[in-house]
Design brief:
TIM Barrel; 223 residues; binds zinc ion; Aldolase_TIM; binds D-xylitol-5-phosphate; 31% helix; 8-stranded parallel sheet; alpha/beta; 8 strands; metal ion binding
């Protein structure tokens, strides 16, 4: 599969949200990455349902909703109704992850599970067939614009090896500090969905940056 690009709306200009959404609509991006933070699971609060619904109203591409919230089961139905196509919960926030992933699928969404930087990939050993997507956090969740954690490359390789022959269609997403310099190496290590917030939205020409990320070939890091 060709890799997907998912610009993170967290880095958009919220006073010009419609303009920024239309930029993404008209770009080579595949999804809108939508970060939900509750101020408990992560030390920051982002936005809630009215904003997700407003994004949905203008977005011409699927919403990839990343729930950085405790007890996400309470809100799965509401995010599905608000227009999510993918709902990703954190492994660290779920007591009954198998049940949670099934509940997401029951709502007609793709089910994702995210791992914090400190959480090893092997915790997914008994659930890898049940996820549509695994999100490897390459920064500690909570804020955009943080520095990429190098250890992520090895985690991606471990995840890819685990999924081989068991879930070959698994979407492997990487989120945090992604840019044109590390995109090629991330893809060669197994990532097939790249989230990018600040790198896209602070660019002089965001559409050109998205195209460049979309066209990047697997390979080594750019200097
Ligand atoms: C971080 C969020 C990310 C964030 C990425 O907690 O999950 O999706 O928006 O932003 P950048 O690409 O700026 O690191
Ligand atoms: Zn995210």
């Amino acid at each position: 599969m060709n890799h997907f690009i998912a610009p993170s709306v967290l880095a958009a200009d919220f006073a010009n949200l419609q303009r920024d959404i239309e930029m993404v609509n008209g770009s080579a991006a595949d999804w809108f990455h939508v970060d939900i933070m509750d101020g408990v699971f992560v030390p920051n609060i982002s936005f809630g349902f009215p904003v997700v619904e407003a994004i949905r109203k203008h977005a011409g591409k699927p919403l990839d909703v990343h729930l950085m919230i405790t007890d996400p089961d309470r809100y799965i139905g509401a995010f599905a109704k608000a227009g999510a196509s993918v709902i990703t919960v954190h492994y660290e926030a779920c007591t009954h992850l198998h049940r949670t992933l099934a509940a997401i699928k029951e709502m007609g969404c793709k089910a994702g599970v995210a791992l914090n930087p400190h959480t090893p990939v092997h915790v997914l050993e008994d659930i890898i067939e049940d996820a549509d997507l695994v999100l490897i956090m390459s920064v500690n969740p909570g804020f955009g614009g943080q520095k990429f954690i190098q250890r992520t490359y090895d985690k991606l390789k471990a995840l890819k090896a685990m999924a081989a022959g068991r879930n070959d269609n698994l979407l492997i997403e990487v989120d945090g500090g992604v840019n044109i310099s590390n995109a090629g190496q991330l893809i060669s290590c197994g990532a097939n969905v790249l989230v990018a917030g600040n790198f896209v939205f602070t660019a002089d020409d965001p559409k050109a940056v998205i195209s460049e990320m979309k066209e990047v070939m697997p390979g080594l890091m750019k200097a």
